[in-house]
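hi! just following up on the protien thing from before. the input was this:
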Amino acid sequence: MGHDRKFLIALYRKMLLIRQFEERVKYLFLGGGMAGTLHQYHGQEAISVGVCSALHADDVITSTHRPHGHALAKGLTVESLMHELFGKTTGCCRGKGGSMHVGDLEKGMVPAVAIVAGGVPIATGIALAFKYRKEPRVAVSFMGDGAVNEGAFHEAVNMGAIWLLPVVYVIENNLYSASTPIFEMVRLKKLSDRAAGYGIPGVTVDGNDVLEVFETARKAVERARAGDGPTLVECMTYRITGHSRRDPCNYQPEEERKEALKREPLQRFAEYLLAGGLIDQAGLDAIRAEVEAEIERAVQSAMAAPDPEPEAALEDVFV
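and the predicted 3d structure came back as:
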């Protein structure tokens, strides 16, 4: 594809950062160090990294109840995210968002919306604002496969289409909406075929191939920025963890999980880099050590950061 080594290594490091962040956070939640719940992004890292690598810094994304990967891919720091999950005032949302509502508008991420399909109309509205103000910016809405059956999805995508708004709709199809398989919810073989109903392009790609995701997203973003309207991008992937932290995944067939693990994006891209002579195992190990150290520093600083005062619950409340 003509990508330079620095770019490719950066893609790998970002995917590894997301994976290791989620691993560390999982045990913090299970050990009682963090309150609330957790929806992990294991196995889907190539989508957020591939899409966000095609965006400008001032482009904006909306996210879901599974937002950590989107946040790190869009440029939020490990420290600000970790502090948020610990509920500290130094978090990206001052400790008031928690796992399902992380974000930072200065980094181009609207605080995540945990309502299924809730971010789709928001991204459409942001794109309308960009067009109205004649700003050369693009909005991206990340959503799961379950979102395509929500009314908000249909209304928002139709609006984006008829007004040729600069927005890209990204479906992360991990085959399950919580525990319900996608084939029980739709008759389509490809969710991207729904694009035909709105008169916009729809494409299905291998969501475990970060370069295929990047190239597809780049074209969709360029099209949106040029004023040609939205694209519906379906990224096929697999959630190699539970829907939430207490989910043992008993509904996923064992053989299906084994096959999915063979295709998961992180090891797959590592093998690509090794085979191409772009890095050796020592280099991969060094990146892992660097990433783990960065995460551990964030954990320690978050644990030492101040908790909110009780009065803070009365701030930022609009009536």
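The chain has one domain: 5-305.
The longest helix spans residues 5-30.
cheers
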